[in-house]
Structure formats: structure tokens, C-alpha cells
Amino acid sequence: MIELSQTQPGRAVAPVGRSNAGSALLGFHSLLMYLFLYAPIVVLVVFSFTTDSFGVRWTGFTLQWYERLFADNRLMGAAMNTLTVALISTLVATTIGTMLALAMERYRFRMRGGLEALLYLPIVIPEIVMALALLAFFAFSFGIIDALTGSRPTMGLGTVIISHIAFTISFVVVVVRTSLKGFDMRLEEAAQDLGANEWNTFRHITLPLILPGIIGGALLGFTISLDDFIITFFTTGPGVSLLPVEVYGQVKRAITPKINALSTIMLLLSISLVFLSQFLQRRR
């Protein structure tokens, strides 16, 4: 007896061979994409443990490059300056960006369209243009301060922090506004009907619900500030060393596995921040 398979009317059944071939092709394409994205990172991490002084071939396992990295006072000082700039700029940019996102999403006011265009401007313009604009702004501002007080400020960590705040605010606003798109305003209205004031409503209702967006915006701003080179290069001053500029200067002179070790540590830091954000969101 021959059994006929039942299919839904009007629905074509793909041949088994064609389906298997499509799945194999899709798997091969995914494998190539993963290799393209992650193979250089794996090579970088592996070559941070090689005994080769140039870090381009595997000649044995060693931890000497990590020891030399932590013994390099210039690199360690640059790393501390970079972390200081990233932390301060992230805190300020996250606070201002969250308030701006709430204002842009919930209120209608004059010049709202112009403000929105200005907020998206640092994202869409080339970074070199942003760096030149900040450099011109500081030169103009320092000239005014010099004319009024007789003392001219100099470039340093302060100018780098201000610059990083200026261009990371936009990224925070975009992420936080995304988390506000599906926000149910009835929850806030219910809390206020039950006697909560505006601050308690924000602290117990609004903030916990948009906290994943705030954490995501803060992590994005921190990562961008941590590895920014162009704006940092244009707005830093003499005697102030930050990690991207310092690494660039050392790579131009000679490539050593110390740079691989430093990149590996920064990679672990970034991954740790991602896992920390996931942990905090799950607990919340």
C-alpha cells in the first residue's frame, strides 16, 4: 500500500535536497562571517603569549609581555588617564543624555526639531570634522578667557573630558529614547493616583523600567570614549598621555607583544562590562 503525504492546500513543499543544500550554504556563510569577525581577535590574544619579540609567530608560551606591560609606567599612566576620562565623561553624558531623552520623548516645545538635529549631528558627521570643531572651539574660548583674565588655559585632561562628553551624549540619547518608545504611561499615572509624587514615581516606576536602556547607553558611551583616537589626539595637550594616542605612537616605532597584551586586557574589560550589565538587568 502506498501512503500519500498530506499537505496544506496552496502550500508548496520544498524538495529535501534543495533544503539541505540551502542549510549547508547558510551554515558555510555563517562560518565565514564568524571567522571574519573573531579570527583576528583570537590571533591577537594568542600572540600576546608568544615568546617571539615581534608577536607575529608562535615560538612558545610566556607571560613576560604582561609583566613588561605592567612595568611600563608610561603605558600604565596612559591607561589610568584613559579610564579617568572614560568614567567621568560616561557619568556626565549618561546623566545629561537621559534627561534629554526624557524631554525629547515626552514634551513638545519650540525648536525641538532643531535640538534633535543637533543631537544627531555628532553621530552622522565624520569624526575628523567633530575633532576640528572642538579644537576651534577651545582655541576661541581660551582666547576669550585670556583677554578677560590675562591667563590662557592649556589643553589637558579637562579638554578631553569635555570633548568626550560632547560626542557621547548623542549615543546615550539614541539608546535611552529607544527604551522609552514602548513605555506605558499608565503605570506612572497609576502611581500618582495612589499618592506618589513626581520624584517617587520616577525613582520607583520610570527609572527601573528604562534602566536597561540607560545601562546600554552608558556602556556604549564608555566603550566609545575608551578607544577614541581622533578627538583625543586633537584635544589633548603636551605632557598628557592617553592610551589610544600612546599605543599609536608605540606601534609607529615598533610592534611588540606588549600591545597585544594590552589589547587582550581591554577586550576582557569590555566583555566583563557586558556581563555585568546583563547581571544587573537580570537582578532588576
Describe this structure in words.
The chain has 284 residues and is mainly α. The protein has 11 helices and no strands. It is globular. The termini are far apart. Mean pLDDT is 82; it is low at 1-7.
| Helix and strand pattern | HHHHHHHHHHH
What is the CA-based Rg, rounded? 26 Å
Stretches where pLDDT is under 50 for at least 5 consecutive residues are: 1-7
Structural class by sheet pairing and helices? mainly alpha
What is the straight-line distance between the termini?
Answer: 61 Å
Number of strands: 0
Beta-sheet strand percentage?
under 5%
Shape: globular
Number of helices: 11
As an assembly, this protein is: single chain
Helix content: over 70%
Largest sheet: none
- Mean pLDDT across residues: 82
Quick summary:
The chain has 284 residues and is mostly helical. The chain contains eleven helices and no strands. It is globular.
Keywords:
284 residues; mainly alpha; 11 helices; 0% strand; disordered N terminus
List the helices and strands and how they pair.
Blueprint: H1 16-46, H2 64-71, H3 73-106, H4 112-124, H5 127-149, H6 157-180, H7 185-193, H8 198-227, H9 230-235, H10 243-253, H11 257-283
